[in-house]
Amino acid sequence: MAFPQPRPQAPQLPQHLWRTVDCQQGAVRAVRFNADGNYLLTCGSDKSLKLWSVSRGTLLKTYSGHGYEVLDADGSYDNSQLCSCSSDKTVILWDVASGQVTRKLRGHAGKVNCVQFNEEATVMLSGSIDGTVRCWDTRSRRMEPIQILDESQDGISSLKVSEHELLTGSVDGRVRRYDLRMGQLQVDYIGSPITCVCFSRDGQCTLSSSLDSTVRLLDKSTGEMLGEYSGHVNKGYKLDCCLTDKDTHVLSCSEDGHVYYWDLVEGSLTLKLPVGKAVVQSLSFHPTEPRLLTSMEGRVQVWGAEPEDAAENES
Amino acid sequence: MASDEDSDEDFVTYGTPLEPLEEDEPSRKPIPVHEQTVKDEKGRYKRFHGAFTGGFSAGYFNTVGSKEGWTPSTFVSSRQQKSEKHNARPEDFMDEEDFGEHGIAPREITTTDEFASERKDQIKDKARAVSSLAALIPGDPGLLEEFIAPARSSIGVELLRKMGWKDGQGVGPRLKRKPRKQNTGRVYGCSLPRNGSEESEEDDDEFAPENVTFAPKDVVPVDFTPKVDSHGLGYRGLNPLQALGGGSGSGHINLFTLQSDRTTNLFGDRASGQERRGGIAGQAFGVGAMEEEDGDIYHKDSMSNYDNVLGGEEPGDGLYGWTAPQQYTKKKNALKRVMAYSGRILDGFALASEVTEIKTVYPPPDLPRDFRPVHYFRPVIDPSTVSPIVAQALQLSRGQLSQDASQQGRHKLDSTQRRDMLGESALQGPSSVFELLESKDRERLTEIRKAAESQKPSESNLSSAVDRAVVVASAKAKAAALQALSSRFQSSSTQPQPPSETQMALNAWSGPTADASKTFKPFSKNPQKQARYDLYISKLKQGDKDAVELSLDSSMTEWERGREREEFVRAALLYKPSSSSLSSRFTHGKHEEDTDTVDVAQEQENDVDDKQAAVKMKMFGKLTRDTFEWHPDKLLCKRFNIPDPYPGSSMVGMPKVKRDKYSVFNFLTIPDGSQVNPSDPKPSSSTIPRVTAEASSKKSRWDVPVQASEPKDAVSAFLSETRSEVSATQQTEAEVKTQTDALPASATSEVKVAQSVEKQSDQKNEEEEEEEEEEVRPSMDLFKAIFASSSDEKSSSSSEDEAEEEEELAPPTSEAAQSTTTSGTVIPPIPAQFTPAPDINKAMDLKHLTVQSVPSAETTAQSTQSSLNAPAKSQGLDEEEFGPRLPPPGFVPSTHSPQMKKQKKKDKEKHKGKKHKKEKKKKKSKKHKHKGKQKKRHEESDSSSDDTDSNSEDVDRDVPTSELLQRLKNLKNKR
After folding, report:
1. What b-and-e string marks burial along B842-881, b requiring 16 or more CB atoms within 10 Å of the CB?
2. pLDDT at B566
3. ipTM
4. Mean pLDDT, residues B643-655 taken together
5. Confidence band of B295 (pLDDT split at 50, 70, 90)
6. Is residue A115 part of a domain?
């Protein structure tokens, strides 16, 4: 290249609390950014799904229609639709603006742990405790799933979708990657029940946290372990992990009320962000900026890389 | 017609049949047009392009480009590799479906020339006809060719010749002379007068020899040439050559093919010797002008001319013109006289030519009255290894035996005595049965000795102790002898059955838990085998020790028996009564699609043990990765904007293969020789089959990372009579009796049930039972009692919080538990509360109890075995969830209260408290009480303050039904 690469900035870690949102919906089972990171979704244990503005912390809409606590949610790329799953074994596709249920999909035999849109929001994929992943068509009116992936021998705890891949983490201690393009299923044995899986942003690695209090970074193509991150506590609860927006750090919730930041390459603990006293249950990293959402009990906290005033001044 | 239903299946059908219409079914929505698709046999969508533009398959299945069709082939020819001349055949330009059944060039399995019959090849004939036009000799194309071509006969003819067939003969077994037929031929319609040749046959009878056989007559196969003309039956029309050219000498034109191919084929033999009258003859035509006779014009047709039986007798006399010499006939007559038989011979039967010899049957030898088919080896016990009491007792008993041994013959002597009598030297091998015993059993015997020694019974007690020891020792020896017996009978090809398994099976089934009617039938495919298995099970239930041996079929070979023995024991273990209680909850499906096979993933995962090892060494990569073929749904690919990785395949998901469904060997793995090693010093590893090891590893990832599966106490797994008699009675029973006197009798009996279940519970059982717990969940009370008691008696603080919770939930029972938990007994005392119906004799109650006691026994066994496992286990019990749990919901701001915070803190403390080890039990229980009361108050306040709080799921789970009821009442009162 003609021009030298710009010097990489020192990675900024969201460690300043911007605001705390008391969601008033019981325990927040999951908190998720939407596709562009301006809004956030909270899944409450009081059967409601709520949409908030990140910047102001105001409630925009409440989506009620589930029969039991909501366990996961996702927003479509165009912000027109939401999907959520619940302990009532259903997956619901919502219309964002009207707050109406577009489709309520039954079929899972147990509570549905995780749900994701695919890239074009044409398919919803939901993983359930019954050990299946079901692929629901959002385009047609069919109430049956397009395909049922029942390879797992135990419940699916987490699931992520990329352009052509589907990553599932199961309680049977295996991370499965369904490659649609290759028509392959790759199973990586971790051993301990998986609580959360992620793709790295470059799509070359998979991150999986398991109940042995370890987060592992595996090479996608070979299955070799690139990094192992431990120090946090994750022994019994289904906790989230993720990568930062630039893949520089690995984040994980912990049962001791902290969010742990590890350097991705060195594997060393960079930061131990105290969130509260209870279990940090869910977290979500902003897709482009160093911003973090954490949920603990009934509250959601928004974290930024610098104090909020400074950030606002900049922008 | 009844046969219609059967023949239905033979029909070839096309298309999908309409589903049977059911009356009460709600009318279904009609399938919209856009979902009505046409698919070909491979599941590809068909698009209709118009009848003249390709039909359904224009292009290469509606795509441009194909495997071969459109891509230009490249011509490469080098010095090394000359390009082959490629002749394009018409098939190269055909689609796959053109070769199909309805295509233009259907491919079907045809016989090759060599095996083909001599039927004329129509295509070849045509080709020949075409080529004949251009041939050298016009009109006869293949003449020269046929001169030159080697004579070739088909393989069938060759084979027949090898078997002794000659040209002109018929095919089939050689025949004796047949009894003469009365009516040699049937005539349809116009009958022809008989000729002389037939009459001459009448006196052939006496010339027929007895021992000469004839080849059957050759029958020209029926040639069903279709009738294509519009003439009447049998009418040929004028052959102009014959009519005009005067081909035939008779000058008579025969319009009827009475001797046409058809008739000759059918009645070839009849017409063979006959010279038929020419001319048009018959009723309908009267007498021709040229005929001389005109007698039989007004012929009357009679019914006897018609045949009213299908099939009928075979015409022909079977003599074939051979005249037998005179002596044959005489001999035959003589024979006939010998075999004169007074009675009537039934149709279809013939008199035997030879009288069968009567075989003399020798009766089996009489068995002596005291004969027993099973041999027990007399124990030879080394006095140094056994306690003096046992040795003494044995010597005593042997002394008695040896006294009368001299009178009773060698069968009463043992091998050493016989050896001594014969003056032989001792064998080199193991000299005593004790060395054949497993180490565990030896240990147990030493245990007995220790127990006996420690007791140091008084002189008066001694005799009874000796008696008991004798009983025990003899039972022991019997068992050992049985083992030796079974191992002896097993051929070398089968592994020696681990004796513990039969023992386990016995333990599993001999208890009162067994329910005969609801057992699983693993061999239902093979009714005889199943019957044998049922016999085995019923014997097991009676506590028969050699149930396997007795129930096996003695007519089978030894190898088969060994195999079946192994199967039965394993099946008995697998489908033991506890799981049958589970299965009784379900009914069998009325409708099974395919009972024989089950779909199994084609590619199987690698060994999990290897992976675990790899994970331990952090060697992720090849070792931990499995790659499978996986077929995404077509629609899924479409939605993901991705080309189908397997175009043309209609499969979805993982490739499956069919496997046998109910073969036991699908579920069982025969233990390797390395695993079943009787001389293995480790007590547990030798006895637990491989399946269980895997199962336990599966279990360990169930909810919480449990410590690596510890070797369980083997003693609990195998409970021999020794233990129940000696150790149970001596150690526990006395204590139990003194302390649980207050308990009603039913409770103790239940304890016994629980114990018996505990005995059989090895690791595998535990897993099964754990699964079962999800289904058959006993009342919360039972858990409470057990946890309260077991945790206390183990005095391990690890299960403290569970006990806390339980006590907080049921304060009334905790006291009862306390009163009983001061003991250090192995058997958990169960408060009287849990036996609702004291009448235990009722079968229903018994069943109920056993179902309940299964998990309890299991948990107690666990808690006694490893205190480390206890928290994880009981957590799993408390939680109905699978997999990682959800964190507690914390507190909703509206119900903010300091009390709740306090509870939160305590929760934390509890978590920390897990790491503590031992604590004083009494102190703890006091604390529990206190805490329990406090918490109860909290909960009540919680429920009263926030009625609509739905997130108290975790709390709700642990609340017993009684308290729920109470809460409900409170609610009602408020309203």
Report:
1. eeebbbbbbbbbbbbbbbbbbbbebbebbbbbbbbbbbeb
2. 82
3. 0.88
4. 82
5. low
6. yes
Per residue in B318-354, pLDDT tens?
555 555 555 555 444 545 544 555 566 777 777 777 7
pLDDT at B897: 38
Of B652, B883, B951, the CB nearest to A154: B883
List, for residues B885-915, the tens digit of each pLDDT value.
Answer: 777 776 444 433 333 333 434 444 444 434 3
Of the partner residues B698, B883, B893, the one whose CB lies closest to the CB of residue A129: B883
Q: What distance in Å separates the CA atoms of residue B637 and residue B356, rounded to the nearest whole number? A: 78
Residue B405 to residue B409: CA distance in whole angstroms: 6
Is A192 part of the contact surface with chain B (CB cutoff 8 Å)?
A: yes
d(CA B415, CA B377): 9
- Burial pattern B87-102, b for ≥16 Cβ within 10 A else e, equals eeeeeeeebebbeeee
Q: How many domains does chain A have?
A: 1
- Chain A residues inside the 8 Å CB shell of B908: 277
The encoded tokens of residue B376 equal: 């027990």
User: Which three-class secondary structure state does DSSP give residue A249?
Assistant: strand
B770 phi, psi to nearest 5 deg: -65, -40
Residue B669 CB neighbour total at 10 angstroms: 13
Residue B289 sits at the vertex; the CA angle it makes with B283 and B292, to the nearest 5 degrees, is 85
Q: How far is B582 from chain A (nearest CA, A)?
A: 20
Structure tokens at B420: 């001594």
Residue with more model confidence, B734 or A87 = A87
**Rounded CA separation B737/B742 (Å):** 9
Residues A84 and A72 sit within 8 Å (Cβ to Cβ):
yes
| pLDDT at A235 > cutoff 90 | no
CATH code (residue A55): 2.130.10.10
Q: What are phi and psi of B230, to 5 degrees?
A: -105, 15
Q: Phi and psi at residue B806, in whole multiples of 5°? A: -65, -35
Q: What are the chain A neighbours of B703 within 8 Å (beta carbons)?
A: 193, 236
Q: How far apart are CA B401 and CA B415, in angstroms?
A: 14
Closest CA to A37 of A50, A20, A54: A54
Q: Does residue A9 form part of some domain?
A: no
**A219 occurs within a structural domain:** yes
- Domain extent for A138: 16-314
For B708-769, give the DSSP string.
P-PPPPHHHH---HHIIIIIIIIIIIHHHHHHGGGS-HHHHHHHHHHHHHHHH--HHHHHHH
- Angle at CA of residue B824, ends B822 and B828, nearest 5°: 85
In a domain, A238, yes or no: yes
Q: Which residue of B615, B882, B890 is in closest CB contact with A155?
A: B882
- A residues 53-112 near B, CB within 8 Å? 69, 71, 110
Residues of A in contact with B615 (CB under 8 A): 189-191
Token pair recorded at residue B674 = 């390395």
Closest of B507, B479, B471 to residue B715, by C-alpha: B507
Question: b/e per residue, A254-276, with b = 16+ CB within 10 A?
Answer: bbbbbbbbbbbeebeebeebebe
Q: How is B377-442 classified by DSSP, letter by letter?
A: PPP---TTTS-HHHHHHHHHHHHHHHHHHHHH-GGGS-HHHHHHHHTPPPPSS--SHHHHS-HHHH
3-state secondary structure B242-287: HHHHCCCCCCCCCCECCCCHHHHHHCHHHHHCCCCCCCCCCCCCCC
CA gap B415, B413 in Å, rounded: 7
- Residue B244 has a pLDDT of 64
Tell which wins on pLDDT, B140 or B446: B446
Q: Any idea which residue has 């007698």 for tokens?
A: B295
Query: Cβ separation of B622 and A222 shorter than 8 Å?
Result: yes
Dmax over CA atoms of chain B, in Å, equals: 138
DSSP code of residue B918 = B
Residue type (1 letter), B956 = D
CA–CA dist B248, B241 (Å, integer): 10
